[in-house]
Amino acid sequence: MGDQIDGIRAPFLFEGVIRRAVHELKYRNLRALAPQLAGFLDDCLRRYSLPADVLVAVPLHPRRLRERGYNQSARLAGELGKLSGLPVAENALVRTTYAPPQVRSSGEAERQRNVAGAFACPRPGTVAGKRVILIDDVSTSGATLNAAAGALKDAGAASVWGLVLALEA
């Protein structure tokens, strides 16, 4: 999995209906799905009793954000914040390098290379000493979550757990 992230939890495997729902949210801007999908994340957060003080969404590179127009992970984090009562630390984490979508990368080593040093914490005070829940839509190899967790821990986060909608089977 990686040496920075404390663990990754997900309510689903990335297949069937959930695969379609994630694609609708991610590529077709079907915002209406976000509250319901966040409900599954909230159930998962409670079921596993994940240590949580703050939610942080995995950020998109500014170029990808311009292409897509929104960050689906930020949308999920915002909805989960409403359901869980946890604050969302917006802009606590930024993506500093542009990488191809991980779905197009082949092996785990390549995925890790793509995201190595890809994240930074411009405002460490937002996460210092806090138990962070890192929100993303899908985890394939864990490389993105691990790289993001490294930046958060460098900024002083006490712990970082990944919470995603689906794990690649």
CATH architecture: 3-Layer(aba) Sandwich
Ranges with pLDDT <50 over ≥5 residues? none
Name the overall outline.
globular
How much of the polypeptide forms β-strand, as a percent range? 15-25%
Number of helices: 6
Q: What is the N-to-C succession of helices and strands?
A: EEHHEHHEHEEHE
What does this structure look like?
The two termini are 14 Å apart. The radius of gyration is 14 Å and the shape is globular. The chain is α/β, with parallel strands linked by helices and 169 residues long. The chain contains 6 helices and 7 strands; from the N terminus they run E-E-H-H-E-H-H-E-H-E-E-H-E. Strand 6 (131-139), helix 6 (143-154) and strand 7 (159-167) form a beta-alpha-beta unit. Helix 2 (33-47) crosses helix 4 (72-84). The chain has helices at residues 16-27, 33-47, 62-68, 72-84, 108-115, 143-154, and strands spanning 7-9, 12-13, 54-57, 94-95, 119-120, 131-139, 159-167. The longest helix has 15 residues, at 33-47. The chain has one domain: Rossmann fold (3-Layer(aba) Sandwich). The mean pLDDT is 91. The strands form 2 sheets. Strands 1, 2, 3, 6 and 7 form a 5-stranded parallel sheet that branches. The chain has a two-stranded antiparallel ribbon with strand order 4-5.
